[in-house]
Amino acid sequence: MRMRMITNRTSSLFSIFCSLLCLLIISTQSCCYAQEDGFRSYSCDNGKGNYTANSTYHKNLNTLLSTLISNTQIDYGYYNFSYGQDDNKVNAVGLCQGDLNQNDCRRCLNNSITLLTQLCPNQKEAIGWYDTCMLRYSNRTIFGNHHVDDYPKIYLWNPQNATDLPVFNQNLKSLMSNLIDKAIAGDSRQKYAAASVNSTGFQNIYGVAQCTPDLSSLECDQCLEGHVSDIPACCDGKRGGRVLTPSCYIRYEVYPFFQPTTAHNAPPPSSLSPPPHSSSTPTSSSDGQGQGKTNTLRIVIFVAVPTVTVSVLIGSICIYLLRVRKPRRTSESNSSDEGVEQEIITNESLQFDFDTIRVATDDFSNSNKLGQGGFGAVYKGRLSNGQMIAVKRLSRDSGQGATEFKNEVLLLVKLQHRNLVKLLGFCLEGTERLLVYEFVPNKSLDYFIFDPIKRNQLNWVSRYKIIEGVARALLYLHEDSRLRIIHRDLKASNILLDDNMNPKIADFGLARLFDRDQTQGNTNQIAGTYGYMAPEYAMYGQFSTKSDVFSFGVIVLEILSGKRHIGNGNGESEEQLISFVWKNWREGTAINIADPSLSNISPNEIMRCVHIGLLCVQENLADRPNMGSIVLMLNSYSVTLPTPSEPAFFVGSRTRSRPLSDIQSGGNNSSSNKSAQESENEASITELYPR
User: Fold this and answer.
1) 141, 131 contact by CB (below 8 A)
2) What is the CATH number of domain 35-325?
3) CA distance 337 to 666
4) Coil, strand or helix at 481
5) How far is CA 383 from CA 218, 380, 390, 502, in A?
6) Which fold has domain 352-438?
7) Is the pLDDT of residue 213 over 90?
8) How many CA atoms lie within 13 A of 677 on its CB side?
9) β-sheet bridge partners, residue 161
10) Parallel, antiparallel, or unpaired: how do β-strands 432-438 and 388-394 relate?
């Protein structure tokens, strides 16, 4: 009895001790927050124009910023106001991390106002990020326009490596997926989520996802999913990381940096390394105030970091001992029935009435026909609310049953990325099977780059943006979507361009899904477009993520040169482009492959893209980089590129010795002969496996 009393007393004292330590940690965080006087990152954009001192714009900016946080009724951490007229109109946005209380939020934004106007004294557009708030102003509309703004994009990461990396990455992906689902469920005041997940032993991963609340749920989802897809490129294997853009941000750490209630002090500064200079980060301005610079405070490093490190260490010990004394309860549900029910609800909400589509397409008139694919035609349509759509009407003899059709809907609805064509809905009525997509107005990439006149609309900046966008979309499909997907028919005609010439990959008809740990497969039914197919796939039916990498490399070389890789009926051989590029590479004249219509090109970027393209089309698939490495190569010049080996289908290579007729026959498979020919928007679906 006496022993039990001593134990209970010890437990009570221990609890009091841990509580005091928690108060110490919180007070330390408050101290660090008060001392922080440098942004994590900021950008002064000279490209949007400059203003002069005491000009009308300058006065309007000062007026707006001085009153931005004066409305004390706003307690949800989002301020968006405008002031002025016409060219002198200023728009400003202030966003605080969702758990910050009103006083700390206003204090953080007030510090931002003071600092940002000092760092960017003449620029009409600027943005700055503290740990817990963001301030942005511009002479253009930056809120309420339902536009995801992902420029500038800033990467920050913790220099320490995570332990038990496979488990860490798996739990991080699960955490981020959960955070996105919660954030997009927010309202017009706040779209924010914070949570943690147990990773290994007693180590947790803490994460935050937040959008500016003027975005719709779909736009917020696209923004956050895009950021998650950037994690392998910026922060792979690290214990912490952030991806920051004006419209949304994500952050994860192995220590708590947010509070479960609104009574919150700012988090301890983490030891983050600034990213290397990349094309996705703005370049330096003429006045020396570089865009996308990271400014880490010396006082915080010298004073806050040791204090926080000790506090977090002691706090972790307390948490661990408390867990030993009391088993941890699991709050997450693994009920598969809930997931099935959610999928049914989603499909019902996406289903269109056949008569609605028939009216929208003018009864599928030829004047609205956009193209004909192997499994049906694609039509342009306009809904009653004025929204433009693209409708894929599957052929009745396509061999695709109702189950396969529903599986394709389930596949496509899970894919949300700004560089993928969005599925808006479907129709399944009798023998009619329709897929309804967003309408992408500028047709496909091949429509521009292979036309001697229209190619002039794509300057080098636009082409580089297209290369980056396609790379990020493939990285998402291969690694970061909820399903692992191999496209298997990536080509220039399957890359659509929106109003701003942003790329969107279309036609997932040949996509094959994998279990989480499966990276390749075999098929007797080779389907794709000859010239874009990797040799191991064209010859032996073996496909993997490296098959898409090969196709991506071909597209990169086509974008650079403005030439088709495969023949166009004018006597050109299918090997001509790769052979031409490889010969120039070996002779040190690779710059010669650049499209002559390009002006104001960056020779370094051209050469780097040629180098990346050749790495992708190497004959040995093991030598080809994965998409995570490719995205990093495109965004960081600090990454040293390996020397490419001989490409596949190069004149004289081993893969050329097998004739095209053998490749098309695929052994003895009669169905392969057609499928090796050029495909157009085929809409088949293969096995469906969750990750």
Assistant:
1) no
2) 3.30.430.20
3) 42
4) coil
5) 19, 10, 10, 24
6) Phosphorylase Kinase; domain 1 (3.30.200)
7) yes
8) 6
9) 238
10) antiparallel
Distances (CA, A) of 136 to 114, 152, 411, 615: 12, 12, 37, 40
323: which 2 tokens? 């867990």
pLDDT tens, residue by residue, 253-287: 999 999 875 433 333 333 333 333 333 333 333 33
Q: Is 392 annotated as a binding residue?
A: yes
Pick the CATH number of 445-675 from 1.10.10.10, 1.10.510.10, 3.30.530.20, 3.40.718.10: 1.10.510.10
CA atoms of 77 and 130, how far apart (whole Å): 14
| Domain boundary assignment for the chain | 35-325, 352-438, 445-675
pLDDT of 546 = 93
The answer to whether the pTM exceeds 0.70 is: no
Instruction: Please give the order of strands across the beta sheet that includes 133-138.
Output: 41-50, 123-129, 133-138, 90-96, 78-83
Q: Is 489 a catalytic residue?
A: yes
Coil/strand/helix, residue 200: strand
As a whole number of angstroms, the distance between CA 324 and CA 592 comes to: 67
Kindly name the residue from 214, 230, 480, 489 that is annotated as catalytic. Answer: 489
Same fold yes or no, 352-438 and 445-675: no
3-state secondary structure labels for all residues of 390-403: EEEEECCCCCCCHH
One-character DSSP codes across 312-366: HHHHHHHHHHHHHHSPPPP-----HHHHHHHHHHHHHHHBPPHHHHHHHTTTT-G
Instruction: Tell me if 630 sits within 8 A of 549, measured CB to CB.
Output: yes
